[in-house]
Amino acid sequence: MSRVSFATSKGGFVEPPGQTPPHSSSTEDEENHVSYHHSINADTRGSKSHSQDPTAPLLPHGDPESQVPEGPTAGKKDIALMVWINFLSFVCFAIVLPSLFPFLKTFGKGESWVGWAVAVNSLGTFVASPILGKWADWRGAREAIFVSLVIMIAGNFLYAIAMNVWVLLIARFIVGCAAANYAPASAYLSYATSPKMRTAAMGLNSAAGILGFILGPVIAAAVAAIPEFHVWKATINETTSPGWASIVLSLVAVPFLITFTDVRPN
User: Fold this and answer.
1) For the segment 164-209, what is each residue's pLDDT rounded down to a tens digit?
2) CA quadruple 121, 122, 124, 130: dihedral, nearest 10
3) Which of 19, 42, 94, 136 has the greatest CB tally within 10 Å of its CB?
4) Which run of H or of E encompasses 7?
5) Long-range contacts of 230-234 (CB under 8 A, 24+ apart)
6) How far apart are CA 194 and CA 209, in angstroms?
7) CB of 215 within 8 A of CB of 91?
């Protein structure tokens, strides 16, 4: 007896009533049903992934083009200010190194105290870096940088008028806390600059830190050559002049914060 099948609109075939295909079973029907739905789901996923533009390139997560800040971006003056902040944080560390031991000797302390004075400065930076970074995320880079500059000026002033070794150590710790402003400054350059300027800005920022280490002792040697003099009760000489010089360098940055473009991360 011959079989008669009818074509359907979906391209399949059905058997007329009363006829069953040979060698068919319910298990085969279930397997065919599952495989059909799997193919439909795969086609649906593929059509969704290319529904907008199948030829458009996809930007990976973290691609510079996908991190362009919304609204205004940092200008050249903003970049220069952040580079200066990074330079300043390293200068304030290195500028006291040539005169630190002579300063400690005035308090009757030996060479081992130089290590403590350097260590407490780095400890302050270690403690304050995440705090200033979180502050910049919460309130903006302008406020975090301004507060750090105020702290830096106060710490260097305390260093310049230190009357005993404990005040000197506290002053160096405070300056170290303020020097952590390199963290929000570097972060600002990473998210506030346009992709075209970002690489150059980060390169300048790294170079500024190295230059700070180089020029810190040079500045100390230059101001140490100034003859000793007194301003009110403050003494400016070869041991205290690095503190005063750091105050002047910190004050340079303050006026530029007025016109600073405080871009917030996305």
Assistant:
1) 999 999 999 999 999 999 999 999 998 888 888 899 999 999 999 9
2) 160
3) 136
4) strand 6-7
5) 233/161, 234/160, 234/161
6) 22
7) yes
- CA pair distance 217, 94, nearest whole angstrom: 6
Helix (H, G, I), strand (E, B) or coil at 103: helix
For residue 223, give both structure tokens.
């101001």
**Which residue shows structure tokens 């970074």?**
133
Structure tokens at 252: 């340079």
Full DSSP string of 141-177: HHHHHHHHHHHHHHHHHHHHT--SHHHHHHHHHHHHH
Structure tokens at 254: 């303050």
SS3 per residue for 16-39 = CCCCCCCCCCHHHHHHHHHHHHHH
